[in-house]
Amino acid sequence: MSRSTSATGGITIPEEYQYWLSKESLWGWLFLLPTLAALALISVVPILRGIALSFYEYGGLEEDVFIGLENYARVFALPDFWVVMKNTFVWSFTAVVLMAMVGLGFAILLNRDFKGRSIATTLLLLPWTIPFIAVALNWTLLFNYELGMFNGLLEVFGIQGVAWLGRSRYALFSVTMAYVWRNFPFFMITFLAAMKGIPQDLYEAAKVDGSTRLDLFRHITLPFLQPIGIVTTLLMSLWTLNHFTLVFVMTSGGPGNSSMVLPVYIYRQAFIQNNFGVAAAIAVVMLVIMLGYGMVYLRLYEDEVGGK
Amino acid sequence: MSRIQFDSVTKRYEADILAVDNFNLDIHDGEFLTLVGPSGSGKSTLLRMLAGLEEITEGEIRIGDTPVNRLPPRKRDIAMVFQNYALYPHLSVRDNMAFGLKRSTDLPAEEINERVREAAELMGIEELLDQKPKHLSGGQRQRVATGRAIVRDPAVFLFDEPLSNLDAKLRKHMRTELQRLQQTFETTTIYVTHDQEEAMTMSDRIAILDTGTLQQVGSPREVYNRPKNTFVAQFIGSPSMNMFVSKLDRSGDRPRFVGDIDLPISERQAESIAARSDADQFLLGVRPEHIHVHETSVEESVRAFVDIIEPLGSNDLLYFELESNIDVTSVIGNSIDIGEDEQGDEEEYKVFIEPESIPQRYENSDDPVYLTFDTEYVHVFDPETGENLSLDQRSTPEAQTESATGAGD
């Protein structure tokens, strides 16, 4: 049996590796090459360069100096850093929870039969198609102290307006609102799709079994939304942790550090304060956090969606 | 008391699709009633209206003495078994079965557990209680679905084609089991199926529906032996009833049918048929067991040619052709439904014979065989209305009350 080996010009190659050297496989790699090269250039190389940089004192035009874990020690000693970490988690947690709730609410409404449902669906999806930069500018206007809609509304009720983006108490919350408005349709549409997939006879069986409307929601709808809900929540958390544009344009992390989140903080450390080594170290810390999320995500995805 | 009354019940979808048309039926307490009919006959719609899953367009449904038109399903004290079982996939078998009790009663947890255990024991699924539905086979799922219904001890059981997803052998087994359960509980049961055999074997009474209209209600024997019209005649019984076309000839000394098959009939019958219909030709319906096959010509026999002989075990089924015959569809009125049997082969004539009583060499040969008919079992149908003219008109209501009392015991 030629199961394990076959001789090619004197060298024996185990059968399981032979495919890798076959013409078909090589052609395949050839086709992949341009994409892989591009990916390596714009993604893998900067990541590796960033990780390396975190161990060096950045020298600018001079030679970089290796300083071991010094950058990390500096990062953890920065009082700002811990404030920013807290902000980042508060912001991503609040935003994701709000988006999930708003998304679920609209999904429930859109899952009913009513006239103009498809128009409503389209309108509700619209925010998701708007570029973040446009969202940021519009919401900055809405939050404007003098001209903004929110203060205008408050005025109607005789309440003194607020400097939404200019007060540390409200800044992060205001950015969160804009972010939730832009991204809730993602939850809405995944929840809606999951709801459409629930077999109707389960609702009928549950109705005959004595369920009220609330029972139907709690015992049929929710359990069916759970797997996709968990996965979407994790994915969205990852994207939110990563998010830069809205915070940068609307507040730049201010006033003070009150709305500062990690991506903006890294940017400031690197390009405003020229602490490239420190910025790289923070970026590595962030990378580790994201990898953690990513691993949980992959695990859950296999269990809940890809799984049996 | 949980008798069920359908009072002029009509269901219309979007104003113009008539699914159920003026349906009246009184189902007795503890009765096992089957709604049978082809797809689109309205049988499932009726069941779903009773369950509260469809609105009733017109008329009234009463469970016990309570009109339920406006009651939500959970207030109707019913349990239903669905065709696809509708088990809650995220819950264990135990929780599936306890679901209804938790929602509809205030029973303490131990009591619920105990009742679930009892029902599981009865269905033979105790060892599955901690499994999720996806790990169960079709037969096991069916048992869980049935167990989920009986654990509630409702006033009415509703079954919507509960066995149609099982293989033939399991289906027969579950049929007996469901019947036994119903006899144990004596709970009023409405069972929907398109399978006339299921209907025949399980029910106290059968209600046959076609295109939203009730065709006949009666005991299995009654609908089999005394079908009211061509639809019932052909739908009930497998293989289905043979239909021949013949003219009533009253010119000779004795009246007789002449055509596809020739038959003498009594003067009194001829009189009654002529009085009830002025049709020129009639449909003669004869079940396969009421025809006899002979190798030699006998008195009043009809020549026929053997197509094929199918051995069925206890008897054989002989398919035959006549020397000439008139196409049934060419004489019937437009509104008449000739129910097809499951195979849809209504064109073929069939007769049951003793195994090997007719030699195989007759298959596809030019040698004729000779048929005689049990004239007392020949049904005469009006081709325009489909009505069975040979039924004694007086006896129909009698037979119904008879079967109704029979159903109670």
TrEMBL record, chain A:
<dbReference type="GO" id="GO:0005886">
    <property type="term" value="C:plasma membrane"/>
</dbReference>
<protein>
    <submittedName>
        <fullName>ABC transporter integral membrane protein</fullName>
    </submittedName>
</protein>
<dbReference type="InterPro" id="IPR035906">
    <property type="entry name" value="MetI-like_sf"/>
</dbReference>
<comment type="similarity">
    <text>Belongs to the binding-protein-dependent transport system permease family.</text>
</comment>
<feature type="transmembrane region" description="Helical">
    <location>
        <begin position="170"/>
        <end position="195"/>
    </location>
</feature>
<keyword id="KW-0472">Membrane</keyword>
<dbReference type="GO" id="GO:0055085">
    <property type="term" value="P:transmembrane transport"/>
</dbReference>
<keyword id="KW-1003">Cell membrane</keyword>
<dbReference type="InterPro" id="IPR000515">
    <property type="entry name" value="MetI-like"/>
</dbReference>
<feature type="transmembrane region" description="Helical">
    <location>
        <begin position="278"/>
        <end position="298"/>
    </location>
</feature>
<feature type="transmembrane region" description="Helical">
    <location>
        <begin position="245"/>
        <end position="266"/>
    </location>
</feature>
<dbReference type="Pfam" id="PF00528">
    <property type="entry name" value="BPD_transp_1"/>
</dbReference>
<feature type="transmembrane region" description="Helical">
    <location>
        <begin position="122"/>
        <end position="142"/>
    </location>
</feature>
<keyword id="KW-1133">Transmembrane helix</keyword>
<feature type="transmembrane region" description="Helical">
    <location>
        <begin position="216"/>
        <end position="239"/>
    </location>
</feature>
<dbReference type="InterPro" id="IPR051393">
    <property type="entry name" value="ABC_transporter_permease"/>
</dbReference>
<feature type="domain" description="ABC transmembrane type-1">
    <location>
        <begin position="85"/>
        <end position="297"/>
    </location>
</feature>
<keyword id="KW-0813">Transport</keyword>
<feature type="transmembrane region" description="Helical">
    <location>
        <begin position="26"/>
        <end position="48"/>
    </location>
</feature>
<keyword id="KW-0812">Transmembrane</keyword>
<feature type="transmembrane region" description="Helical">
    <location>
        <begin position="89"/>
        <end position="110"/>
    </location>
</feature>
TrEMBL record, chain B:
<dbReference type="InterPro" id="IPR015855">
    <property type="entry name" value="ABC_transpr_MalK-like"/>
</dbReference>
<keyword id="KW-1003">Cell membrane</keyword>
<dbReference type="GO" id="GO:0055052">
    <property type="term" value="C:ATP-binding cassette (ABC) transporter complex, substrate-binding subunit-containing"/>
</dbReference>
<dbReference type="InterPro" id="IPR003593">
    <property type="entry name" value="AAA+_ATPase"/>
</dbReference>
<comment type="subunit">
    <text>The complex is composed of two ATP-binding proteins (XacJ and XacK), two transmembrane proteins (XacH and XacI) and a solute-binding protein (XacG).</text>
</comment>
<dbReference type="InterPro" id="IPR008995">
    <property type="entry name" value="Mo/tungstate-bd_C_term_dom"/>
</dbReference>
<dbReference type="InterPro" id="IPR027417">
    <property type="entry name" value="P-loop_NTPase"/>
</dbReference>
<dbReference type="GO" id="GO:0008643">
    <property type="term" value="P:carbohydrate transport"/>
</dbReference>
<dbReference type="Pfam" id="PF17912">
    <property type="entry name" value="OB_MalK"/>
</dbReference>
<dbReference type="InterPro" id="IPR040582">
    <property type="entry name" value="OB_MalK-like"/>
</dbReference>
<comment type="function">
    <text>Part of the ABC transporter complex XacGHIJK involved in the uptake of xylose and arabinose. Responsible for energy coupling to the transport system.</text>
</comment>
<protein>
    <recommendedName>
        <fullName>ABC-type D-xylose/L-arabinose transporter</fullName>
        <ecNumber>7.5.2.13</ecNumber>
    </recommendedName>
</protein>
<feature type="domain" description="ABC transporter">
    <location>
        <begin position="4"/>
        <end position="236"/>
    </location>
</feature>
<dbReference type="InterPro" id="IPR047641">
    <property type="entry name" value="ABC_transpr_MalK/UgpC-like"/>
</dbReference>
<keyword id="KW-0472">Membrane</keyword>
<keyword id="KW-0067">ATP-binding</keyword>
<dbReference type="GO" id="GO:0016887">
    <property type="term" value="F:ATP hydrolysis activity"/>
</dbReference>
<dbReference type="Pfam" id="PF00005">
    <property type="entry name" value="ABC_tran"/>
</dbReference>
<dbReference type="GO" id="GO:0005524">
    <property type="term" value="F:ATP binding"/>
</dbReference>
<keyword id="KW-0547">Nucleotide-binding</keyword>
<keyword id="KW-0813">Transport</keyword>
<feature type="region of interest" description="Disordered">
    <location>
        <begin position="384"/>
        <end position="409"/>
    </location>
</feature>
